[in-house]
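Consider a typical record:
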Amino acid sequence: MKKTKNIFWVLSIFVLTLYSCSSDNDDSVKLLKKVVETSEEGTSETTLFTYNGTEIVRIEGAQKRTDFTYTDGLITKIVTLSKTNQLLETIEYSYLVGKLVEVESLGNYRINYIHNSDKTVSYQKFTIGSGNQEVKEFHGILYFENENLIKEERTLDNTAVGVTSNYSISFDYDSNKNPLYNILGYKKLLDHMETISSNNSLINTVIATTTNGDQVLSLANFYKSSFQYDSENYPTEQVSETALFANGNRGYLKTEYFY
């Protein structure tokens, strides 16, 4: 009986040690808890992030909230609701051997992904119209390097006859840590563009080219951000003069990050 008690005591200590190590590992992962965005006019908006371990549960702002669902460590559904609990959008994610193969915004659009042997990813986007008719909107290729999305090339498929429209965006990064990268499964979300990268994008270069017969029109735009970092190389502040707002306009925006 005494021997049995001793074994039970040793096992109890072992289990407590494992639990302590697991808790320490979770605590050592730095997760983004709050973002405060301030416009040039001084208007501020706060966004809060809620987690279960390293799984993102909810992102909540002043006007809407976004809820996340996981299956086996992968994000499989994102539901966006207004503050009055009105459903704004439901997006479902499908995977094959841990790689994203389809994104579907229910009733709105669908994106298919093919992971190529050279580590690029090809994709096609279809919009969903009346009667669930699908129309191919565009297709393209995503390029990666050092766990960063470095370039996207896109060709529109719904242009007029004889017109070709191409679009590319290139990303230049710092060597510091993206505050979203530690979220479990987030880097798999290819539809989230450069925010899935391991580092922070400093310059986005966008080139749009339209060809109509012998006429070629090209436009290039550059979007820059500057960062401040903490002692662990996570950003604490980002300033952009050309941030994209929800209404489609661009302008000054200061973003503060809290962990």
In short: The radius of gyration is 22 Å.
